Amino acid sequence: MSEQLKVPTMAEYMAEGKQPEILFWVGSAGSYDDRAKKITKAFVKLLNNANVDFAVLGAEESNTGDVAKRAGNEFLFQMQAMMNIEVLNAYEVKRIVTCDPHSFNCLKNEYPGLGGVYDVIHHTQYIKELIDAGRLSVKGDTYKGKRITFHDPCYLGRANNEFDAPRNVLQNTNATLVEMKKHKRTALCCGAGGAQMFKEPEKGDKDVNVLRTEQALETTPDIIATGCPYCNTMMTDGIKAKEKEDSITVLDVAELIANDQD
Amino acid sequence: MDYLSNIIFAVILIAGVGYFVRNIKKLIRNIKLGHDIDTSDNKNQRWKSMARIALGQSKMVVRPVAGFLHIIVYVGFVIINIEVLEIIIDGLFGTHRVGLKVLPESVYGFLIGCFEVLAVLVLVSVIVFWLRRNVINLKRFLSSEMKGWPKNDGNIILYFEVVLMCLFLVMNATDITFQNMNAGNVVSQFISPLFGDNSDTLHLIERSAWWLHIIGILIFLNYLYFSKHLHILLAFPNTYYGKLTPKGQFNNLEAVTNEVKLMMDPNADPFAAPAEDDNAEEPAKFGASDVMDLNRIQLLNAYTCTECGRCTSECPANQTGKKLSPRKIMMDTRDRLAEVGKNIDANGGAFKDDGKQLLGDYITKEELWACTTCNACVEACPVSIDPLSIIIEMRRYLVMEESAAPMELNNMMTNIENNGAPWPYNQQDRLNWVNE
């Protein structure tokens, strides 16, 4: 992205004695993974365009511990959680937005029991909020007429019952939204959850992401939209496995909206 | 009057119900082998879930064909069983169709007419169910865990239902006074001619069908405990105790919280002697390697599972040929629990170590590590069973008690411990993306 992004940290806000409207939890994928960093930047562009007073923790952010918990390492999860909660509570954070449904679920549902109570929302919910409030506008011509199918992230959809926000946001692009046969409550996982992202799959006859990609291809889409950095990786790999990378792109909801700005 | 038949009836009834109660007590004892778990919250919401999911069958109709047929069998069984009340009264007091004495003929006729129609609908549904299991060969009934007893169990239940419905119709068809009344014999009037018009023969067939019907019901009642069919009772408590928090929320282990707090407390004395408490329990085991390490709801889940396989057919790992099957997780948990129960019975009320456990002897690591924690199985279950929570408990045991995670996951966790990310990047570089 050519224009310079404004990304203030909580420490800078603190130094000025101010509180941001919202904390942007970048997450490990969003900070380090090359593909996910593009999603992070697209979302920050939207925050900048909407003049949102936000901040990040920067080097003070650490892994939520979500993936350790799903792998069965409750110790590591709680260590991470308590360290993060100490930082978040010291900054008196009230509201958190994140592009990662796994961080979203973990911060929203699993931190409160350990003393970290915040209003946590997913970036697709926040983008919807900004559009509804008139703070963010979408041109609606970049993807006009294109076929977009949205792949529900398990930890946003089934796990937290949010199916509508990403779809409502996508409607602003004037694209044609097409649903896979398995969508919303019955959506098939991309194959990355439960720490699978970090290991080889067990022996089987197919990879989960390939199966999910095949389901997406049935809708003959131009674009597969995702709302999770891990789903994005899995679906991108699936498209490559099916040799469709020339005709179909995998983009996060934030990227689609950021590309459709004035 | 001859009281012999009344006495025989009472003995059979008491024996049938008594044996059932004895087994249900065992079942409750087995469930109580699990950890206690507080479920006193949200009573209203829990009753509502039970009414909606168990009574209202709301999740059955997600798959319309099986759902519709199931509702017929469910409604049929519940309503036709009102007839059992009459049979019991008749049997105990030597009356015949006592319903006619308390109800106007038209009302009684209407009721029996409904039962007869339902009996036919149940018969048709059960035949379709049998075809689905044995002829159409639906994939989810052919998995490896369905071989042998589970397949026979499913069929035996269907045969029971066919026999009971037929006996009910034959009983009505051969009842001369009932047929002469000509109210409510909407179905049985067409079967009646098949049995001729010799009144002695008819009476003999009627009595036989009547006795076999009630004995059949009592046998079926007692079959439940040994079968997957317990769901007809346990679906109700199971949906009441179902998970109410968001599906993505996994519980935080309290024993771990205490230790982590101690580790992070700068004022804690690392050399402090353990608090003196003679009643101190042995340190809690992290996670689960056997059924006693699970909680009571998880064990209730295991007994409630009716092996329909909707979970497995939605599981991404299973759909792509991995060994994991959430249904098998539930069946293994139940089978191990039954084995532990028998062990306790055989050893005078105390469990004697049999060198076996749920982990390894029933459920393999390969199955556990194939799970994506996507919750598709939990969503698919028509009676609120949570196979995922058992998988996670067993992963916890593998990781925290045995350090037996796959190597790549150990690397990932080491990275998180060392630099706060699953990859080997420096935490100080977390904000580098801004200027890249």
Question: What's the SSE blueprint?
Answer:
The complex is a heterodimer of chains A (262) and B (436).
Chain A: H1 10-15, E1 22-25, H2 27-32, H3 34-49, E2 54-55, H4 66-70, H5 74-90, E3 95-98, H6 101-110, E4 119-122, H7 123-132, E5 147-150, H8 164-171, E6 176-177, H9 208-217, E7 223-226, H10 229-241, E8 249-252, H11 253-259
Parallel strand pairs in A: 1-2, 1-3, 3-4, 5-6, 5-7, 7-8
Chain B: H1 4-31, H2 43-55, H3 64-80, H4 82-93, H5 99-102, H6 105-134, H7 149-173, H8 176-181, H9 188-191, H10 199-223, H11 231-240, H12 254-264, H13 296-304, H14 310-314, H15 316-319, H16 326-346, H17 358-361, H18 365-369, H19 376-380, H20 387-401, H21 407-419
Helix pairs in contact in B: 1-4, 1-10, 1-16, 2-11, 3-6, 6-7, 7-10, 11-13, 13-16, 16-20
Query: What's the average pLDDT of chain A?
Result: 96
| N- and C-termini, Cα separation of chain A | 14 Å
Main sheet overview of chain B:
none
Helix content class of chain A: 40-55%
- Structural class label of chain A: alpha/beta
Annotated CATH topology of the largest domain in chain A? Rossmann fold
How many structural domains of chain A? 2
Could you state the oligomeric state of the chains shown?
Answer: heterodimer
The gross shape of chain B turns out to be: elongated
Spatially, the strands of the biggest sheet of chain A line up as: 2-1-3-4
Measured by DSSP, the beta-strand proportion of chain A falls in 5-15%
> Tally of extended strands of chain A?
8
Share in helix of chain B? 55-70%
How many strand units of chain B?
0
What is the N-to-C succession of helices and strands of chain B? Answer: HHHHHHHHHHHHHHHHHHHHH
Residue-averaged pLDDT of chain B: 93
What is the name of the CATH architecture of the largest domain in chain B?
Answer: Up-down Bundle
- Helical stretch count of chain B? 21
Cα-atom Rg of chain B, whole angstroms?
28 Å
Radius of gyration of chain A: 18 Å
Organism (chain A): Winogradskyella haliclonae
Pfam family, one (chain A): CCG
Domain Cysteine-rich (chain A): 32-102, 148-235
InterPro entries (chain A): Cys_rich_dom, HdrC_iron-sulfur_subunit
